[in-house]
Amino acid sequence: MEAYLEQRVAADARLAPAAQILRVIAATAVEMSSLIGLGQLYGRLGASRASTNSDGDVQKELDVLANDMFVDGLRRAPVAAVLSEELSETLALDPSAPLVVAIDPLDGSSNIDANVSIGTIFSVLPVLPGATSPDAHFLQPGRAQAAAGFVIYGPQTSFVFVLGDGPTQIFTLDRRDGLFYQALSSLSIAKDSAEYAINASNYRHWDAPVRAYIDDCVQGAEGPLKRNYNMRWVASLVAEAYRILLRGGIFLYPGDHRPGYGEGRLRLIYEANPIALIVERAGGVATNCVQRTLDEVPAAIHARAPLVFGSSDPVELVARYHSDPQFSAERSPLFGRRGLMRL
Ligand SMILES: O=P(O)(O)OC[C@H]1O[C@](O)(COP(=O)(O)O)[C@@H](O)[C@@H]1O
Ligand SMILES: [Mg+2]
Ligand SMILES: [Mg+2]
């Protein structure tokens, strides 16, 4: 990985600060990977604490440990401020630094004790000239990101990132020497796929267009989409994103009618935006069901956003279900009934 970073910085010296942040995150991820690998031998990392995070979620031991480890690491990088899922307010670091970092230190917390893949997601933004508060740096649309990425701690620990205007990269940790090596030389998300990921237990809470799309997937070859689908739901965004990068598919976490879930569950700045950049730079599409995620202007530092991403064909199809109910009616005689009953 070092050779890749050096080569990019040699070609464009302006990438040096972001490259330094990637190095620090990679080094911290190596430590995280080995302690996660110890599981119960280290202690109950998945145990709940008495505390809650910025969003009211009960914090797990590993959420807090991961937050402390990454924040400590970022103190050694050119970072002006850190926004973390686990901190209610932004943390000011080096006021002369050119970049800020938003981070979900531990993604997929519900999977810690279950020995299922979990991860770390981060977004690097340039400081906003003339910002009147530390929060203002983070309230930029995701297209402004200077770098972004995630680490997945699974059977393999891999570091997936974008630096500057480069394409998505995947480097995998060789646990024998503690270094990351390039796993794939070029990455391109399949344009189409018959695999979808959604938490279907929320079906009754979804809006009509999401229900219509999933209904049509479930009908398979007998339905309007005329093909059989397969479903996955890991409940770790990093694991769904990694799978989709490798073999295509669509992920949906839409807004729904549960209290507090009008904008879904995922946070725009440190979950949706970095995943969206990685997906776009690998040829995929990411939206809030209708519009491009990277064009959304965050309303608040911990704001949520509906997130749909993956292969371009199904993601664009979901947008059509939302923007044009007639489209669904034409495709599916069932939608007429759905429309009458539910729209
Ligand atoms: O439990 P649900 O509603 O299916 O939500 C699962 C989603 O929540 C998350 O766990 C949210 O992330 P955190 O674990 O960082 O809060 C995502 O990784 C995952 O996609
Ligand atoms: Mg998360
Ligand atoms: Mg988290």
Automatic annotation (TrEMBL):
Manner of cofactor binding, per the entry note: Binds 2 magnesium ions per subunit.
UniProtKB keywords: Carbohydrate metabolism, Cytoplasm, Hydrolase, Magnesium, Metal-binding
Record has Magnesium as a keyword: yes
GO molecular function: fructose 1,6-bisphosphate 1-phosphatase activity; magnesium ion binding
Gene Ontology CC terms, in alphabetical order: cytosol
Predominant location category: cytoplasm
Domain Fructose-1-6-bisphosphatase class I N-terminal, chain residue ranges per copy: 21-181
Binding site for Mg(2+) 2: 104, 107, 271
The Fructose-1-6-bisphosphatase class 1 C-terminal domain, residue ranges: 189-322
Family in the record: Belongs to the FBPase class 1 family.
Family annotation (PANTHER family): FRUCTOSE-1,6-BISPHOSPHATASE-RELATED (PTHR11556), SEDOHEPTULOSE-1,7-BISPHOSPHATASE, CHLOROPLASTIC (PTHR11556:SF35)
Protein name: Fructose-1,6-bisphosphatase class 1
Organism: Methylocapsa palsarum
